Amino acid sequence: NAGVTQTPKFQVLKTGQSMTLQCAQDMNHNSMYWYRQDPGMGLRLIYYSASEGTTDKGEVPNGYNVSRLNKREFSLRLESAAPSQTSVYFCASSRQSTNEKLFFGSGTQLSVL
Amino acid sequence: QKEVEQDPGPLSVPEGAIVSLNCTYSNSAFQYFMWYRQYSRKGPELLMYTYSSGNKEDGRFTAQVDKSSKYISLFIRDSQPSDSATYLCAMVGITGANNLFFGTGTRLTVIP
Prior knowledge:
heterodimer; A: mainly beta; B: mainly beta; five-stranded antiparallel beta sheet
């Protein structure tokens, strides 16, 4: 049982490049989330999907787009990467959007030069 | 002022010590309180989940909530080297993970 799987684990981009972070969960959860974690800032919500077919902005959505491809998969896209987007990105899922018990993936460490 | 304040540490203790980790918060609407444990280069994992004030115990771990003081604590008894990790507090008022507020985490090292 893999839980929440994120790819890639590491990525280095140049300013202006684009990339997509992939996330998949095998727990049949309805809700999925993208967070970024920065030193001294804690975890901040970028976007979330309460259920298949819906997406909503979180605290720090600027510069990102998301796609809820199906119930299992939720991707995060950086269209034009900036150094300020250097961070560790975590995907998470929960049974329902009203359930705060999150299951996290192992993260993607992204550096934008 | 941040919604949730957490001392970043780092905190180093000898094996077998009792560890106390704490968070303070400003929003009196918070009702659900969580502690996540995060090992190096891993995602957070839910450790403790409590509702409103009081204590909850799970093995060597005890979560304590004092809503009157807006203060929550996690106690670890008989600490082990495997407890070395960063501990994040999290809390929410209106139920829903999109309304979760996280602390910045306290890094704990248990020395054998």
